[in-house]
Each structure stands twice: as structure tokens, then as C-alpha cells.
Amino acid sequence: MRLIAAVLFSALLYAGFVPGANPVSAAELTAEERASLDDLRVGDMTKLVIHDEARPPITEVFRDKHGNAISLSDFEGKVVVLNFWATWCPPCRAEMPSIDRLSGALGGDDLAVIALSTDRFDVGRVIAFFEEIEVQHLTVYQDRRGGVARMAGALGLPITVVLDREGREIARVTGEAEWDGPEAKAFLRRVMELTRPSA
Q1: How far apart are CA 37 and CA 194, in angstroms?
Q2: What is the C-alpha separation between 155 and 45, in angstroms, rounded?
Q3: What is the pTM of this model?
């Protein structure tokens, strides 16, 4: 009997029917929380724009190097740093090593770093560039048709947006930044802390 009860409880927990088993829809950041993030807009993060209200999730799909469809909803539960770039963009190329180092330093259960190429060329050019600069931590992703970039309103490159754990954009940087610098790391750690589900 105890075994049956345990199995039933596990099934309910996995399915999310037990209150508190899975985080419910996360509330948007409060004005006070946004102010605490605004205080971290120093150094290379001075050009960071923190939105008054989170923007709706992006639903367009992109592709990995094998052509598999990927959605930002696949990263739900993590804070996402989404970098729009292209191989023909000199500031993007200069910025990419810091994006890679950020992924190595903070990427994991709480944070995903996505370098999303907007190149219209074959994905081989993106792969070759990653090999050229010896990328260690990033996965090749391509928005070849530009659907994700358009939905995000990514005009000009590079643009990096920060998404909360439900895929809503809460901040963005237009232009190149040192994403593995102390200012960027402090900001992202604070975002992770503020959006972490309650125990």
C-alpha cells in the first residue's frame, strides 16, 4: 500500500498537480527589484536598457547546426542571454569571445547563453567562424530567415537581450559589450537571484 501511495505521489509531483511541485507563472519584477538592477548599470553595462514591463515571449523558432528546430521555450526555467550577431559584423566578431567566456563562467542550470547567428548564408560559415576563434562553450544556432530577430525587434547588430525564466525580455544592450566582465556578471547574477523560483 505504501509503495502504491509513493508511486502515485511521484506521478503527481512530476505532472505538477501537487501545489508547489512546479513553479507557477513567475510575477514580473517589482519597481524595487528593477531599481536594484538599475543600480548595476555601471561600466560596460551603462548602455543596458531595463524595460518598465517585460515583453512577451518570442515564439519563432530557429535552428541548430543540424537543422533541428529550437524554441526559446526549450530554455524555460533559465535566465537567457540571447545575442543576435552575424559573421559579417565586425563588432559581433569582436564580442563573441566574451559571449563564449560568459557561457563557460555562468552557463548551467540557472543561465543559458545563446549566440544566435542571423546569417542568411549556409550554417557552415557560422561553424567555420566558431572553429576559427576556438569557441569552447557555445552551440551553433542560426536564425536564417530572421523570424526571431524580427519578433525581438533586433534592428542593427550586435544586440543582446536578457530574458527571464519564462522567456520574457526584461533588458537589452544595443552594441558591443564585454559580457564576461565583472559588471555584466554582477547584473546577470542579480537577475538570476530575483527570478529564482521560491522553494
Answers
A1: 10
A2: 19
A3: 0.86
